[in-house]
Amino acid sequence: MYSTYFHEHELFIDSARRFMAEEFAPHVSEWERAGNFPNSVFKRLGEHGFLGLLVSEEYGGTAADYRLAGAWCETFGELRAHGLCVGVNMHSVVVMHALDNLGTKEAKRRFLPGAVAGDLIGAYAFTEPGVGSDLANMRTRADFNGKNWVINGTKTFITNGARADFALVMARTDLSAGYAGFTTFVVDTKSPGFKVTRKLDKLGWRSSDTAELFFDGVEVSPECVLGQVGEGWIQGANNLNWERLMLSLTALGGARSVYRDSVRYSQDRSAFGKKLGEFDYWRGVLTQMYQKIVLNEALLHHALDLVQNNAPQARAIVSVAKRQVSADALWIADQAIQLHGGYGYTTEFSAERWWRDLRLMPIGGGTSEIMANVVRKELGF
Questions:
Q1: Residue-wise pLDDT tens digits, 254-292
Q2: Has 243 been annotated as catalytic?
Q3: What confidence tens digit (pLDDT) does each residue in 313-334 have?
Q4: Which CATH number fits domain 233-379: 3.30.50.10, 1.10.10.10, 1.10.240.10, 1.20.140.10?
Q5: Cα–Cα distance between 381 and 378 in angstroms, integer?
Q6: Which of 243, 348, 352, 369 is catalytic?
Q7: Which are the contacts of 146, defined by CB distance < 8 A and separation ≥ 6?
Q8: Contacts with 163 (C-beta within 8 Å, 6 or more apart), sequence order
Q9: Which of 139, 299, 344, 365 could form a disulfide with 351, with the two C-beta atoms 3.0–4.6 Å apart?
Q10: CATH label, 7-120, candidates 3.40.440.10, 1.10.540.10, 3.30.70.120, 3.20.20.80
């Protein structure tokens, strides 16, 4: 495996794999059938120090770097429950990271220690109905009443939306200011006027809670502005870049598990008097799977290295990586279903769930089409 991880990262990966095998793997099918995983998952992760990797020690975090967080995302992605993986990671390495970097001391003291411990759960609320990835047409408004900001609007496709104790919410604060007219707020979901209007039923990520949220005159104090008023757009772009890398690393972990499951099945399953893995065709497919994984490892670790070093080309390379890794992971999952034949279309084997979960990767965090546009803009044409 190509890797930019060091020895300490490899030790961390081994520890994380053992923890997931013991704590989560025996339960993921049950949680998938239930359409949810328990909040106690966050608590267990907090107790074992797996939350708060990118949070300052002052608030109970590890103060690790992107490389360790990347190792976590990639390893966690090997678990056959990407709804669980992304639900946890949106809270732990996206929401908490943004709050730690940009929040006021008051907001950080209020939310971060509980979030690191797994007692409080966070969500990121950008996307809106009818707008999708076109954030420039966001309709959610926040108006200052002389004392507090008052938020009105709707958000959808929000991971952890139904269970969140707090959410980072982007809203328009100045319609005449263009990209400088967006601001992000830290919203306590117990605030009057906040409502979860529905929980979305999905093709995959079934154990993940994905919700639509409604804000009806929700008041937020100035201490809960993330960064400065008017900085929401650039914050969102930066946070999305890391979120996209997180999702891509998760997809890589999933693709690796699909490949391993496929190799095992090809060695166990017989047809026409010999193992599937002895047929030239399936040997070729398995070789292609391995080749794609190796190439994606190299691409993603290059992107991770650029993000770690805050390199100017990081945004373009992360977008390239997300587009490529998402497509390859989905291809690998699709071939795994074909390898399993009729069994691949049943829930008896892992292939169908992997396909359903990995199918969201070319959509979530910005579609593959948007990734192509980002790359073109970064290249100047």
A1: 999 999 999 999 999 999 999 999 999 999 999 999 999
A2: yes
A3: 999 999 999 999 999 999 999 9
A4: 1.20.140.10
A5: 8
A6: 243
A7: none
A8: 39, 121, 209
A9: 344
A10: 1.10.540.10
